[in-house]
Write a structure and sequence with these properties.
The protein has about 325 residues and is of the alpha/beta class. The protein folds into three domains: about 50 residues; about 80 residues; about 150 residues, Ribonuclease H-like superfamily/Ribonuclease H (Nucleotidyltransferase, domain 5, 2-Layer Sandwich), CATH 3.30.420.10. The chain has 14 helices and five strands. Helix 7 packs across helix 8. The longest helix has 21 residues. The radius of gyration is 32 Å and the shape is elongated.
């Protein structure tokens, strides 16, 4: 029971005691109220019923008289959808250029009423609208959502069939005593969610080529399929001069198109990041506690699906 309910019950007890004693002064003395309070409580109860016993906060009822007009509020919400990272002052200035007069305080008031007071809340609103297919994203919105949610690009990947798009990336696993840094080259088919992973002591272009030539392409050839497009970030192991870079030359030789993220979007696609996180949480951190690895081959052996059912699930099914 809330405090308001307790106060309402106490007021009702005061009215019932007055009926029982038929003496206002004695009832007020017992319950701790003044005669003025009693008559006010009785008047409210007779006018509004049980609702009249609840304490009401002072101030205007309904919309505040200083609230912005409905059309101004709609313009503020629309601007928050188009530019979720703009602050209240900038929104006020931008709307003023469009002929809409509103202060930064008015903008914050609208945000507060709709639960959009923070940048995080406005980005969540944009992401939800995108998931429900309510808006068509522009370049700025895509960039902001990719920065806000690493998995956003994963949800936007469209691969109509197996091999239409294969995402690749490099992941730093850690340092192995006596060996040095250990890197994981990965590839994920964006349609079937089938993945490949292999460990290397560096992240040179030759290691990226080796994974494609040793694991990925043979899988497609065995199934009589082919890779149409490879998606990567702007890492040096994937990108370079088309006439000199080993990875670029390999893709040209295999007649595979190479798509990279733009310069102002250095993040890799979310499906590979999710793949890396699954491997890190369900394999590397688990095996690292119970097994002492001395070579990369031993780590690779533990990573193979045949020896690790958990990794088999990660390799064959990355949740969208």
């Amino acid at each position: 029971m809330t405090t308001k309910d307790k106060v309402a019950r106490r007021k009702l007890s005061l009215l019932e005691l007055d009926k029982e004693l038929d003496n206002v002064s004695r009832a007020c003395k017992v319950m701790g109220y003044s005669r003025q309070q009693f008559y006010e409580i009785r008047r409210n109860f007779q006018t509004y019923g049980a609702e009249g016993l609840l304490d009401r906060l002072p101030g205007p009822r309904g919309p505040h008289p200083n609230r912005v007009a409905a059309e101004v509020e709609e313009a503020i919400l629309a601007h928050a959808m188009d530019h979720p990272c703009h602050g209240a002052l900038r929104v006020s200035q931008e709307l003023r250029l469009e002929g809409i007069e509103v202060s930064s305080g008015g903008v914050r008031g609208v945000w507060q009423r709709h639960g959009l007071l923070t940048k995080h809340e406005r980005l969540l609103r944009l992401e939800k609208a995108t998931t429900e297919r309510e808006v068509e994203l522009n370049e700025e919105q895509v960039r902001l959502l990719e920065r806000f949610s690493p998995e956003f690009r994963e949800r936007r990947i469209e691969a109509p069939h197996t091999g239409s798009l294969v995402a690749v990336d490099t992941f730093f696993v850690g340092t192995l005593k006596g060996v040095g840094k250990v890197y994981l080259q990965t590839a994920v088919d964006c349609h079937s969610r089938h993945g490949w992973a292999r460990l290397y002591p560096n992240k040179m272009p030759v290691t990226a080529v080796h994974l494609m030539n040793h694991d990925v392409l043979p899988t497609f050839e065995a199934a009589r399929g082919r890779i149409e497009v490879v998606l990567s970030d702007n890492g040096r192991e994937f990108c370079g001069r088309p006439d000199r870079h080993p990875y670029e030359l390999f893709l040209q030789l295999e007649e595979i198109d190479h798509r990279t993220t733009k310069v102002n979007r250095p993040q890799s696609n979310g499906i590979v990041e999710r793949f890396h996180r699954t491997l890190l949480d369900e394999h590397f951190r688990v095996e690292g506690r119970r097994t002492w690895f001395e070579t990369i081959d031993e780590m690779q052996g533990a990573l193979e699906p045949s020896s690790s059912p958990t990794i088999e699930n990660a390799l064959t099914k990355v949740e969208a």
